[in-house]
Amino acid sequence: MKTTKLIYPLVLALAATLATTGCKHKPVGVTQLPGQRPMVGENNNPTTLPNTPPINPNENPNVNPMALPPPEEFDNMLADRAVLAAYTIHFAYDRSDIRSSEKANLASVAQALSSDPNTKLLVEGNCDERGTEEYNRSLGERRALAAREALAKLGVDPMRVETRSFGKDKPVDPGHDESAWAKNRRDDFVLLHPKAGM
Amino acid sequence: MKNIHLQLINIFLPVFLLAAAVARGQNEQNEIVIQPTIRMGMTPPIPVSLDGFTGEAADVLKFDLYVQGFSFVSPDAAQYLISGSNAGNVQGRVTDRFSKNSLLARSYTGASIRREAHAFADDIVMAIRHEKGIALTKIAFKAEQPDGNGEIYVADFDGHNPQAVTHDGAIVAAPAWVPDRLALYYTSYKLGNPDIFYHDLTTGQRRAIARYGGLNTSAAVSPDGTKVAMILSKGGSPNVYVCNADGSGLKKMTATSEDSAPCWSPDGQWICFATKINSRRLLAKVPAGGGEVQIVKTVGVSNPTEPDWSPDNKWIAFTSQAREFDICVVPIAGGDVTLLVPGEDPSWAPNSRTLIYARRTASYRYVLSLLDAPTKQVKDVARVSGNDSQPAWAR
Question: How far is it, in rounded angstroms, from Cα B168 to Cα A42?
Fold first, then answer.
């Protein structure tokens, strides 16, 4: 052990000398890099979209009565955002169940739909900012679906109702306090009329 | 035991190096690696010194090495000495200060100083830690405008060289890379509803692969590129579905009540996602071929969402939510959680140690940030919109 200790600095010095001398003789490697091509091709400007229908047919509504209708069934409808604006319903934090305080508004929406059988309904589900983005997109959808289920119980054919979640992307109040959050946790109802001639 | 082992190396290392140097007649690198166990959030960085680089080259090297677990100290405190220059082109050397062993000596030509410096950073990581670096990798993300609409972007991993993928002027969300290809899946509200599109970045061609009634979002591509997991609500509740790369062969995977944000295990055997069971928010996983949903326990934190499974099959990174949001990791089998830093929506780099995530600023905007999970070293990436989120690392 004592011998090792004595030899140690000598060995280290020798190794260091060899290492540094070696370095001077060693040729430096060269890496030839290819120029950087842009990731996105020059013809990438997809401002228009092919109106691709779903590849799979929707689930058989006879099997699942709450399955959603395909989006084409809502093509050629005109959206009226004003007529049901007073009946927006609100939710508790992180919840999608319909509170009893909101049931009168839902009854009014059901009434509007039953008074004109040609109309359809878009339910838009929204969240406050206290949740991650995709979590909120699912929570907003649950809120819209909860209204659809409640309207079905009030006699509205669920095939007349489509849902859309905006997660936390469309707050009505941009604030960051409970008063803003309470307004943003909501379902908006948009009445859809057939376009003239349809 | 560990001490004895280290002492033996201490005694014999110089002798061994001498013998090897003599035998080879030059100082080629000898592989003696003392790799400390990686402990998430508690591993000290590797101290290096950086000399001779200026401007952009110095900035790039510092950034790239910092977010991969290196720290910068003076030469007399460094474990490795990095030196070189960027006069004309980038050239550099790496020397082990203790063994005096030269680990790397290279020059880089044919590209911008920025790209040459990235290439040198990758070689430094390989020379010192024997791991593939991330300096030439790519990210995709969502850049939101003040009106709530946004576009999908791709960029270098540090946020430089951003390019818009979409020009939709609509809400967009949740980009996901096809492994080893310049192609993305993402969500766009361009047609009104949130629909999932496949987009080939080279040809600019795209098409809808999921345009059902209700929610179509959160695409995640299987490691072999043949399957896509996603969240659809066509069946009356937001659930995990899987289809082929072109949208055909759709299959419902779960019957839970409120699923979100699926990801794949690197062997393609599992799909992990966030869900609600008995009103509790949990992480769960389901066999990719179908089967029973199993809970992934996240002990010590509440409201886990946005899981991402590490490419080395060891960790699941995710977001927990108490008062604020935190980036966390848990072993893939579930168990005790390591809380790392405040943030949301983590995505693993190919090196299974660096994460990119969205950090909320004091003004409630999102900034993309990089986190070296073992050392907890953090750096923001270059911004595109002032509200960039939902990052996805190409791997």
Answer: 17
Question: Domain spanning B138-393: which CATH class is it, in words?
Answer: mainly beta
Q: What gap in Å lies between CA B15 and CA B220, rounded to an integer? A: 52
Residues B390, B174 contacting (CB under 8 angstroms): yes
Please report the pLDDT score of residue A2 as a whole number. 44
Which of A58, A122, A134 best probes binding to B when mutated, by most B CB atoms within 10 angstroms? A134
Contact list, B198 vs chain A (CB under 8 Å): none
Radius of gyration of chain A measured on its C-alpha atoms: 32
Considering only residues B41 and B24, tell me which one the structure prediction assigns the higher pLDDT. Answer: B41
Give the CA-trace dihedral at B131, B136, B142, B146, to 10 degrees: 120
Please check whether residue A168 lies inside any domain of the structure.
yes
Contact of A121 with A162, CB cutoff 8 Å: yes
| Distance of alpha carbon A168 from alpha carbon A3, whole angstroms | 72
Query: Between chains, do B109 and A29 touch, taking CB under 8 Å as contact?
Result: no
Q: pLDDT tens digit string along B266-294?
A: 999 999 999 999 889 999 999 999 999 99
| pLDDT tens for each residue of B69-89 | 999 999 999 999 999 999 999
pLDDT tens string B348-385:
999 999 999 999 998 889 999 999 999 999 999 999 98
- CB contacts < 8 A, A to B, total 249
User: What is the predicted pLDDT for the residue at B37?
Assistant: 62
Q: Which of A8, A30, A40 to mutate to test the interface with B (most CBs of B within 10 A)?
A: A40
Lateral strand order in the sheet of B354-360: B344-348, B354-360, B366-372, B377-380
For residue B122, count CB atoms less than 10 angstroms from its CB and return exposed for 0-12, middle for 13-18, buried for 19 or more.
Answer: buried
Ramachandran class of A76: left when φ > 0, alpha when ψ lies in -120 to 50, beta otherwise: left
B36-129: which CATH topology?
Rossmann fold (3.40.50)
Percent of chain B scored above 90 by pLDDT? 86
CATH number for the domain spanning A113: value is: 3.30.1330.60
Give the span between the Cα atoms of B90 and B263, in whole angstroms: 39
Kind plus residue range of the DSSP H or E element containing B20: helix B2-24
Side-chain half-sphere of B185: how many Cα atoms within 13 Å? 28
Q: What is the mean pLDDT of residues A128-143?
A: 96
Domain ranges across chain B: 1-34, 36-129, 138-393
Check CB contact under 8 Å for B233 and A55. no
Interchain proximity B201–A39, CB inside 8 Å:
yes
Q: Are B307 and B320 in contact (CB under 8 A)?
A: no
